[in-house]
Amino acid sequence: SMVSTQSTGFVVEYIVHYQMCEVCCKQKGSDGEAWRALVQIRQRTIHKKTMFYIEQIILKHGMHKSAMGIKEMEGGINFYFNAKNNARKLVDFLLAVIPCQYKTSQELVSHDIQSNVFNYKYTFFVEIVPVCKDEIVCLPVSVSRHLNHMSQVAICARISDNIHLIDPVTLKIGQLNANQYFREPFDAICHQKQLREFMVMNIEPIYGQANQFGAHSHKHTLADVWVLPLNSLGTDDQEIHTRTHLGNILQCGDYVLGFDVAHAVVNNQIFDKIKPSQLPDIVLVKKIYPEKIKRNKGRNFRLKHLRNNSSSETVTEDEDYNDFLEDLEEDPELRKNINLYKRQKPQWMAEAEEVIAPKVGLEELLDDLVLDAADTDENG
User: From start to end of the chain, where are the E strands?
Assistant: First the structure.
């Protein structure tokens, strides 16, 4: 049998689709152009303490490593990703570690009619609760009742995955999660930068209070305290009496930051409805430790940063950052979620010996960080 073979010629058209490796994609995306998903983290406050805290948690858990680019913006940080899933992971992480809520939006970039393929850019807007540590808040009546009938004027003791509140007059404590806060939101009536300095003239701890109903703080001591504003020292002004939760750390002659409720102008509808007889004259918030400059220089630790992934010195002119570092020294609970690195330079030793203030123990510090090749990328 005979086998016949036929051959014919035709044109084959090859289309080259360029793809970038992950490293090149990061470099191209460092200016925020090639991103597919964006996470915008924002907080409506006048200082950045909570944002510094968020930065440190993200670094500790490595949630920034898949980001193509990171940009510091007014009121927060932008994270750019080349995949929606990576952005979603960061949002889910933030929901677990900080009180916040988020909204999503998408923008159509391109559309292939033949293959019916749509190309979107996704944006996640994450709003952090606008309350920070050491701020005085005014609680709605229903929230006050929910928190064991705590005073409506309370202090934010700490921000973690919940908002931690303390009543300075009774030591009652309470927590609110993000859902509870956004259901009935409230604002700070006094920020740390608005607090006045007072001097403690006399203090008497209050002992033997009958066990009251509900949760109370065991880390604080209730005390009667008499104070004078710093600008009234040496005058005939009367000492002002109040109750404070800082009885365990305050002594006569100490300086303390407080909110002068009696003379303050507060623009808050909830606060306006509270009877003046139910308000304290002064709410004391935080003890001032002397030698602030020496304290900053004598710090034995430093932190890593998202901007350049390197550890930075703790001697800085940024007041918000210094306040954050002081909070870390004064609150062991706060620094549990943060990696602190040893400062190798010896000049802090002499400064530290002269400072009387809470310090971080050397056993809590990690050895100075060694960056591997992947971590030295400026945006990673």
Answer: 37-42, 69-73, 76-81, 100-112, 117-128, 136-138, 153-159, 163-166, 173-176, 188-190, 196-205, 223-229, 240-244, 255-260, 282-288, 301-304, 311-312, 341-342
Most confident listed range (98-102, 305-309, 330-334): 98-102
Whole-number Å distance between alpha carbons of 56 and 340: 9
Identify which of 25, 30, 20, 77 has the alpha carbon closest to the alpha carbon of residue 54: 77
With a pLDDT cut of 70, the percent of the chain lying above it is: 81
Least reliable range by pLDDT among 15-19, 21-25, 145-149, 320-324 = 21-25
**The predicted structure's pLDDT at residue 352:** 57
Concatenated DSSP letters for 315-331? --S-HHHHHHHHHHHH-
Q: What is the DSSP letter of 366?
A: B
* Residue 103 CB-density burial (10 A; 0-12 exposed, 13-18 middle, 19+ buried): exposed
CB-CB contact of 260 with 194 (8 Å) = no
8 Å CB contact between 172 and 215: yes
Predicted confidence at residue 226, as pLDDT, reads 93
Q: Pairing relation of β-strands 37-42 and 117-128?
A: parallel
Tokens of 198: 């007072």
The pLDDT value recorded for residue 86 is 93
Q: Could you tell me which residues come within 8 angstroms of residue 242 by beta carbon, excluding any fewer than 6 positions away?
A: 224, 225, 227, 258, 280, 281, 282, 283, 284
| 3-state DSSP assignment of residue 308 | coil
Helix 49-61 and helix 84-97, axial crossing angle in degrees, nearest 10: 120
What residues contact residue 61 under an 8 Å CB cut-off, 6+ apart?
93
Spatial neighbors of 191 by CB under 8 A, at least 6 apart, are 45, 46, 47, 132, 135
pLDDT at 24: 63
Instruction: Report how far apart, in Å, the C-alpha atoms of 66 and of each of 126, 141, 306, 380 are.
Output: 18, 44, 13, 7
Helix then strand count (H, E) for the chain reads: 9, 18
